[in-house]
């Protein structure tokens, strides 16, 4: 188990309250004020919220609303009661909203003094991960992610978080992350909750970064499948590499700015006297975030290499296909040549047969003429008729033979 896993499991285990309790006792022994105590001291000097602003929010927008005092959850019925309990019990409120509109945020912004620019950003989705300070209030944009296995797609959500001296407001613009498990784990660790709103911020950050792990596993599995497809010569693998590459880039855009968020948080540790244990836990989450970025960089480089290898494999396959086509074309040309030669040889034989047929036709014709049984054929009674017929047949045959020789038919 790595350092991050050990630290992340620290507050999730059932004995987490005991660990935090020991840390709290050591701090109390040294007369070191806690962030919650400082927040209560500052809260005593805060002015009352304007009486003209009514606490209104759509029931569908408020997904959870609780006040935490001395590590214990209190469930108010309305937002007005939330504000009253925060002041009376000197605790902090955690209001969870899901895709609210301006009316849903008005009373919350007025009560907790949220900056108008931050409220504008919080109502608009598609924000880049960032951290902005407005006095003692932090406005943080986070981009959770999840891996959808059936479609093999990385979905990146959006979460906006306001953290003040006595409040936490979370605004979700997507289905992820589900913050109910975060609340349950915190409520099972009252000593951690006593550290104030910063503990909620840590828990939310830890949950989001933890949720990156299954996304990394899903992407790694996809890369393994693509690697197999590359060497099997799958023609569709190039498109899949491009698609997964875009998802890795989008995922990386959601994670990389978190390092700046943690750097901004660290810069305020001393100024705002953040609990030392929370500082350590936040640094561990930051280390985990850095490792996620490193893995994403490795994924991107691996996909680029696979794209290069795939191009080489495709080129090799194309060359082999061209070689096979060339060999087939050469074989076809050879067959055509053989057929042509056979046709020429056949033509030569036909010419020879035709020539001999013509040569033999002449004596056959003469013999046929004089073989007819007619009485009135003057040549039949010649003394030289027979020799003359022979000479005629031989002469015509010799003449045709020479003619055929001259025409190269023989």
UniProtKB/TrEMBL annotation:
Transmembrane segments: 353-372, 384-404
Location of the protein in the cell: Cell membrane
Reactions it catalyzes: Mg(2+)(in) = Mg(2+)(out)
UniProt keyword list: Cell membrane, Ion transport, Magnesium, Membrane, Transmembrane, Transmembrane helix, Transport
Chief place of localization: membrane
GO molecular function, one term: cobalt ion binding
Alphabetical list of InterPro entries matching this protein: CorA_cytoplasmic_dom, CorA_TM1_TM2, MgTranspt_CorA/ZnTranspt_ZntB
Membrane topology of this protein: Multi-pass membrane protein
Listed Pfam families: CorA
CDD domains xrefs: MtCorA-like
Entry's Gene Ontology cellular component terms: plasma membrane
Cited function: Mediates influx of magnesium ions. Alternates between open and closed states. Activated by low cytoplasmic Mg(2+) levels. Inactive when cytoplasmic Mg(2+) levels are high.
Entry similarity comment: Belongs to the CorA metal ion transporter (MIT) (TC 1.A.35) family.
Protein name, entry field: Magnesium transporter
UniProt organism field: Stackebrandtia albiflava
């Amino acid at each position: 188990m790595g350092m991050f896993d050990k630290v992340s499991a620290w507050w999730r285990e059932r004995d987490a309250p005991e660990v935090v309790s020991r840390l709290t006792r050591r701090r109390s022994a040294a007369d070191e004020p806690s962030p919650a105590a400082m927040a209560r001291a500052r809260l005593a000097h805060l002015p009352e919220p304007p009486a003209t602003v009514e606490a209104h929010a759509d029931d569908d927008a408020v997904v959870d609303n609780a006040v935490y005092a001395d590590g214990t959850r209190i469930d108010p019925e309305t937002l007005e009661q939330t504000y009253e309990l925060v002041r009376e019990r000197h605790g902090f409120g955690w209001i969870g909203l899901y895709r609210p509109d301006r009316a849903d945020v008005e009373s919350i912004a007025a009560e907790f003094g949220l900056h108008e620019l931050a409220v504008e950003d919080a109502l608009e989705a598609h924000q880049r991960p960032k951290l902005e300070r407005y006095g003692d209030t932090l406005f943080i944009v986070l981009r959770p992610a999840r891996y959808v296995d059936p479609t093999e797609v990385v979905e990146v959500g959006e979460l906006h978080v306001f953290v003040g001296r006595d409040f936490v407001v979370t605004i979700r613009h997507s289905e992820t992350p589900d913050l109910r498990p975060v609340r349950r784990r915190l409520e099972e660790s009252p000593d951690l909750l006593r550290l104030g709103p910063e503990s909620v911020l840590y828990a939310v950050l830890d949950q989001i970064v933890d949720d990156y792990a299954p996304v990394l596993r899903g992407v790694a599995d996809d890369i393994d499948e693509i690697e197999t497809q590359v060497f099997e010569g799958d023609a569709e693998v190039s498109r899949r590499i491009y698609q997964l590459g875009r998802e890795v880039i989008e995922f990386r855009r959601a994670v990389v700015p978190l390092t700046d968020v943690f750097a901004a948080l660290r810069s305020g540790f001393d100024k705002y006297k953040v609990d030392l244990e929370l500082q350590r836990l936040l640094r561990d989450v930051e280390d985990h975030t850095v490792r996620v970025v490193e893995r994403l960089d490795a994924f991107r480089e691996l996909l680029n290499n696979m794209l290069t290898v795939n191009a080489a494999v495709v080129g090799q396959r194309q060359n082999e296909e061209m070689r096979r086509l060339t060999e087939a074309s050469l074989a076809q040309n050879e067959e055509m040549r053989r057929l042509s030669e056979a046709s020429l040889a056949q033509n030569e034989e036909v010419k020879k047969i035709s020539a001999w047929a013509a040569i033999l036709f002449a004596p056959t014709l003469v013999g046929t003429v004089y073989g007819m049984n007619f009485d009135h054929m003057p040549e039949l009674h010649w003394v030289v008729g027979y020799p003359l017929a022979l000479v005629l047949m031989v002469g015509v045959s010799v003449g045709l033979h020479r003619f055929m020789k001259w025409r190269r038919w023989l």
